[in-house]
Structure formats: structure tokens, C-alpha cells
Amino acid sequence: MKRSIVLLFLASGGLAAQVQPFHFGNRANNSTHPYPTDDEAIHALQKLSSIPSIQFNEDESPESNFDLQVYTRLYMMADTTRNKLVNNYLAEKSELLMDFEDSDKGPEAVNALRHQLLDLETEHLRKLEQLDRIDAIAEEFRYRHIACGKLAWLPASKTTHTELFYLGQRLGDPHRFLKTAWMSYNPATEQYTVGFEPYATYAGALRIAVGTALSTMDRDLDPNQNLKSGEPTGAQQDAIQRLVGGGANITGQVSYPLATYCAQHGKVNARLEGIARLGLDMPVIGAGRQEVGLMHEAALGTTFFYTDIVPGVSFFVSDRLGVLGGNMSFYDNLGKGDADAFVLNQLSVGFAIHSKFRLHWNYYAGSPFVNRAFSPTLGLTIMTD
Predict the structure, then answer these.
(1) Mean of the per-residue pLDDT values for the chain?
(2) What confidence category does residue 371 fall into, taking pLDDT thresholds of 50, 70 and 90?
């Protein structure tokens, strides 16, 4: 019933009937048609954008164009309002300058003009920021239309889409500082890696992130001594642990949404992304690393989520299939024996708790070198958003 009312609301013009045709003239000169002021038009848009998210039952077949209708109306109203705001701003600015030309142009007049222009610009920017937020809400409805209930290829073209793809929510600010940290532990070697993401941002269809990771090994162990016969040395295991636990001491990564699927009831989500990564390992004298190690990777990442298997707990499976290469120091650090690129496939299975903590088990396969030297690890990821 609620859905039918909302659809009827949109079909009939809804709040648009109160703000159309977006004349912002003097009310006194047109009292029979009380056109809204700039602030009232923006308020109307905000009221329209507050339509609650529609919840679907398992057996409900929603109209596929509902989200598109909301997006279209929000976008058109915001665009029309923005054009009028700009015109009003320019007209008021021109009027202030003309009044100044007719003044005595003394110091007091110059100072008054400066303050008036500053106040006018501040208010104009405030209104435009409100409209930008409405644009983001409109894009969320558009993304839901694209991705919800079907497999969508290349679903992201705006920053809002990319935020929804990776986080399932819009961000007020696409720039994220120190929002993600992780730890990886290798039971076979009793080594662990700790890392965090100092900075990440969403720009258009891209997610760009900078990460750092540090691994540890037994300080009583000779870094050049094999842990077991035929296995990599301690220093090489240290490099392997760092690679699977974060990539390198310093990494830069760019990700691009390739496909997504979201079930109508919202519990099943899947996504496919393309990943490019570059990493640097800093030299550590006396620990098997005397030169900078450079690594690069091109990968495909797949993630499947089933949310709320119990309240607040979700199950997930992810797979990352990549081709890795680097300079000679990178291969030497790993103890690979040659300078050929290799395939690394990481399968992770785990649980997410309240979307903040992820506990997972990681298994590695790929090239013969990977099958021989890489052992399963346990991981914990913490996301503060």
C-alpha cells in the first residue's frame, strides 16, 4: 500500500507541483502564484529525497522502473533549481557592483561591498552543497535501478555508485583516512603481518587506496636458514607473509567495478572488480633485504556476501586471481629462483560482524612456486566506518 501511494505521488508530480515551474520572482507581484524561494525549493527537494528505502518481500515482484522514476524527478528538479540559483547569484552580484559604481567609492563603501560579496558567495555555495547532496541521493536511486535484482555489468559511472559498490552506503566525504586495518597470521610459520590503509578515496568509477604492511619473523632465526629442508629461508618466508598479508611495505592500488548483483531482498550480494596494484619493499640490512623490491599485480577480485544469517553476522567468500611480477629484488626476496611472473589465487572464507570486523581463513594456489611455498593464513580486518 505504501509503495502504491509513493508511486502515485511521483506520477502526479508529488512535491514538484509545489515548486514547479521554478519561478523565484517577487511574491508580492504574483500573490496568486506563491512561487517558492530558493531555500523553499531546496527544502522541497530534500523532502522528496527522504522517501524511505523500499523493502521487498521474498515473493514480491517490484516495478523495475520505480527507482528510475525517483532518480529522474530528483535529478531534473535539482538541475533546474541549480540553474536558477546560478542566475540569481549572478544577478544579485551584478546589482551590488552597479550600486557600488553609483556610490562615492570611499573606503567604507569598498569594505561594505567586500563583505556583501563574501556573504553572497558563502550563501550561494551553501545552497549548491545542498543540491550536491541531493544529486548523490538521486544517484543512489539510479544505482539501485541498475544493480538491484539483476546482474549489472560496469555498474559505476559516478563516485556515489562506487561508494555503494564497495561499501553499500553513500559517504558524505569520499576521502577516507585510517579507516581500515588488518592482521594476517600464518600458523605454519608463526609469523604475522599487520597493516592499515592510511588513505583511500572514491573518484568517479575508481577506488584508489594507499596501504602499508609490516611482517614479523622469529628474531632468533637466521634469515638465511631454511625453516625446513626444501622450504624457503626465514627471510623468504617473511617476504611471502608480507606479500599475502598486504602486498608490500608500501602499496598503491586502483580498483574498478566490473559487475555486481544484488538480490531484491538485499541479503545476497556479489561483485566483480578489476585491480591494479604496485608495491615497494624497503631494504632491511641484515634481514635478507638489501635492495628495494618492486612488485606489480593485475588481478580480478570476486566477493559473495550473504547478510544477516543471524542478526549482525554475514557470511562471505572472496577470490582474488592475480598475475604478479616485479624486479629481481622482488623475486630474490621471495626465493623464487627465476624472474618470471607467476599466478597467485587467494580464496578467503569468513564472517563479517556488524560490517566492522571480518574474520577469515585464506588459502593460496596458483603457479608451482605458490603451491610449494605458500601456506594458509588466518586474517582479521577492521573497518571503522
Answers:
(1) 78
(2) very high
Q: At what angle do helices 66-101 and 38-49 cross, to 10 degrees?
A: 160
**372-383 CB burial, b ≥16 within 10 A, e <16:** ebbbebebebeb
Q: Is the distance from CB of 216 to CB of 234 less than 8 angstroms?
A: no
How far apart are alpha carbons 285 and 221 in whole angstroms? Answer: 15
Residues of the chain with CATH 2.40.160: 159-383
- C-alpha torsion sign, points 51, 52, 56, 60: negative
pLDDT at 170 over 80: yes
Model's pTM, two decimal places? 0.75
Contact 214, 239 (CB under 8 A): no
Is the torsion defined by CA of 129, 134, 139, 140 positive or negative? positive
C-alpha cell at 185: 597470521
Residues with Cβ < 8 Å from 161, sequence gap 6 or more? 139, 142, 143, 146, 155, 205, 257
**Is 159-383 a domain of CATH 3.40.1710?**
no
In three state form, how does the secondary structure of 175-244 look? EEEEEEEEEEEECCCCEEEEEEEEEEEEECCEEEEEEEEEECCCCCCCCCCECCCCCCEHHHHHHHHHHH
Rounded-to-integer distance, Cα 59 and Cα 62, Å:
10
The owner of cell 617473511 is 238
Q: Are 332 and 236 spatial neighbours (Cβ–Cβ below 8 Å)?
A: no
Are 161 and 141 in contact by the 8 Å Cβ rule? The answer is no
b/e map 155-174, b = 16+ CB within 10 Å: bbebbbbbbbbbbeebbeeb
